[in-house]
């Protein structure tokens, strides 16, 4: 009986870190962060004049974690954002963003809004729920 209990405890101890690292990991590698900065720069250059934008102005402002293969972030840039709260319906949930700044899901070198990522099936309904709770708690 003791051996079964000890084996069960060992399985639980070894499994928990693996499960915790699957969703919502809070570590972003420097290599991925640099790749995200470079790709976000290219993404923004399609929207605004590249003369107004410099790579050093871009960074990861807040990292929410990795969800279903997507790095979920607020990106820092020099584009002004409205300070008004806004609500967005995604996957049956209402996510209240504290400003006009967008939360992006980054996958395969591309940036998607949370709604776009969910609609493309990159994020699950559970992912949207977890991200929404974190967005609500972020100042």
Offer a quick outline of the entry.
This protein is α+β, with helices and mostly antiparallel strands and 139 residues long.
What fraction of the residues are assigned to beta strands by DSSP? 25-35%
| Backbone CA Rg | 18 Å
Helical stretch tally: 4
- Give the helices and strands as they follow along the chain: HHEEEEEEHH
Mean pLDDT: 82
Estimated structural class: alpha+beta
Most strands sheet: 4 strands, antiparallel
Keywords:
139 residues; 4 helices; alpha+beta; four-stranded antiparallel beta sheet; 25% strand
Describe what this molecule looks like in 3D.
- The protein is of the alpha+beta class and 139 residues long.
- It is 40% helix and 25% strand.
- It has a four-stranded antiparallel sheet with strand order 1-2-5-6. It has a two-stranded antiparallel sheet with strand order 3-4.
- A hairpin with a 2-residue loop joins strand 5 and strand 6.
- The chain is globular and about 40 Å long.
Question: Secondary structure elements and their pairing?
Answer:
Layout: H1 2-22, H2 30-45, E1 59-67, E2 70-76, E3 86-90, E4 93-97, E5 103-107, E6 110-113, H3 114-119, H4 125-137
Antiparallel strand pairs: 1-2, 2-5, 3-4, 5-6
């Amino acid at each position: 009986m003791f051996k079964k209990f000890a084996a069960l405890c060992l399985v639980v101890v070894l499994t928990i870190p693996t499960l915790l690292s699957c969703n919502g990991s809070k570590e972003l590698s420097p290599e991925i962060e640099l790749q995200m900065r470079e790709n976000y720069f290219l993404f923004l250059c399609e929207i605004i004049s590249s003369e107004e934008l410099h790579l050093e102005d871009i960074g990861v402002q807040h990292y929410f974690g990795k969800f279903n293969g997507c790095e979920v972030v607020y990106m820092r840039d020099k584009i002004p954002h409205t300070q008004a709260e806004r609500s967005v319906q995604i996957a049956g949930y209402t996510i209240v963003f504290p400003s006009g700044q967008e939360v992006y899901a980054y996958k395969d070198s591309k940036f998607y809004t949370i709604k776009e990522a969910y609609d493309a099936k990159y994020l699950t309904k559970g992912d949207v729920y977890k991200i929404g709770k974190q967005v609500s708690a972020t100042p």
